[in-house]
Amino acid sequence: MFLCDIGNTSYHFLKDDVDYKEDVNKFNPSCIDEIVYYISVNQNIYKKLEKLDNWIDISTKIDKTAYYDTMGIDRILACESIQDGVIIDAGSAVTIDVVNNGTFEGGFIYPGVKAMLDTYKNISPALNYEFNFDLNLDTLPKNSKDSISYAYLKLIYTEVMSLNKPIFLTGGDSFKFAKIFKNAKVDKNLIFCAMLKYI
Amino acid sequence: MFLCDIGNTSYHFLKDDVDYKEDVNKFNPSCIDEIVYYISVNQNIYKKLEKLDNWIDISTKIDKTAYYDTMGIDRILACESIQDGVIIDAGSAVTIDVVNNGTFEGGFIYPGVKAMLDTYKNISPALNYEFNFDLNLDTLPKNSKDSISYAYLKLIYTEVMSLNKPIFLTGGDSFKFAKIFKNAKVDKNLIFCAMLKYI
């Protein structure tokens, strides 16, 4: 049995406690014969998978009435996996969702690390840097690299900390963000754990 | 006499109290015979203009020792134009700079409106929206359009307000941001006013 969480850029698989990714533009889902339980926020892939009998969409088993119509199924599942806290899912987008006593309170969507770096690079070649995740967020920067790092990291840090809740970090860039959110619980497989409850 | 503030995407001219823009990729600077006093953060354009006698770079007249090496000359000029406050220059990038009793305290660089909208659209077609500048920033959103608007606007709002200083708004998108920063002083020509002091 495989579990699969399909995002905008990759299929994220879990098989026998090992997780790995495949590019959405290159991977052929019909190459797997075993049962795959999946969720997908990627509508193009979703249409392909509907035709494959061994790919089973578990989103149909989830009560989505507490959420909004266009909310990604990965965010919904993550929210369903906790009773109280903030979930930061750091992938191609960084989604931040708040659950208060088992109830979804709302959330917001920030660009992911790669997307934001590309944004700065495209604005100006003078802003073509990696982010400094070791930045001191208490001091306004005086160099270009830290000026974009501060914008990206301090602003989300302040907002998340103001929510005053336990922080759960998941997604491919969770270990980067763990440098900023030092007290967060990091669980790369949060979505997979949530999926298992519905199988 | 023309004044010109050259950014990453456009030449911004002021001539006889009328300001207008020309695309950096299309405009030919040698078509102007009159004197043009200019600043440029665009290195490619800067190299062209050095060869034209009637284009006079006023950045050479400014004492930059209080700033950092790679800081844009437009930001430096804006800082030189105030004694105390936060300057938000909302163009292709949104630069936020803090001046405290005439001294530059540091700043950061956030993507501009268009750059950030493109970023979301490129992450997923499901995030292809305009920002809602009328959003209530006190409530966590429960729809996709507001989820990206909140991320873009609330985070910068909180950071700027935490600085607890008078706010000066300039740049092409200053009127959009004025909806968020309701007490800001909006001056689209802040940079031009600062330039005039050096002529």
Describe the model.
2 copies of one chain form a homodimer. Chain A is of the alpha/beta class. Helix content of chain A is 28%, strand content 27%. Chain A has 6 helices and 10 strands. Chain A has helices at 43-49, 73-80, 113-123, 144-162, 174-177, 190-196; strands at 2-6, 10-15, 18-23, 36-40, 55-57, 85-90, 93-100, 103-111, 167-170, 185-186. Chain A has a 5-stranded mixed sheet, sandwiched between helices. In chain A, a hairpin with a 2-residue loop joins strand 7 and strand 8. The longest helix of chain A has 19 residues, at 144-162. The first copy, chain A, is globular and about 55 Å long. The termini of chain A are close together. In chain A, 45% of the residues are buried. The model of chain A has no long low-confidence stretch (mean pLDDT 95). At the A-B interface, strand 7, strand 8, helix 3 and helix 4 of A face strand 7, strand 8, helix 3 and helix 4 of B.
Search tags:
199 residues; alpha/beta; five-stranded mixed sheet; homodimer
| SSE class of chain A | alpha/beta
Mean pLDDT of chain A: 95
Q: Terminal Cα separation of chain A, in Å? A: 11 Å
Summarize the helix and strand pattern of chain A as letters: EEEEHEHEEEHHEHEH
Oligomer: homodimer
Output the strand order for the largest sheet of chain A: 3-2-1-4-5
Shape of chain A: globular
Low-confidence stretches of chain A: none
Estimated share of beta-strand residues of chain A:
25-35%
Question: Helix tally of chain A?
Answer: 6
Number of strands of chain A: 10
Radius of gyration of chain A: 18 Å
Biggest sheet descriptor of chain A: 5 strands, mixed
Percent helix of chain A: 25-40%
Biggest protein-protein contact in the assembly: A-B, 48 and 49 residues
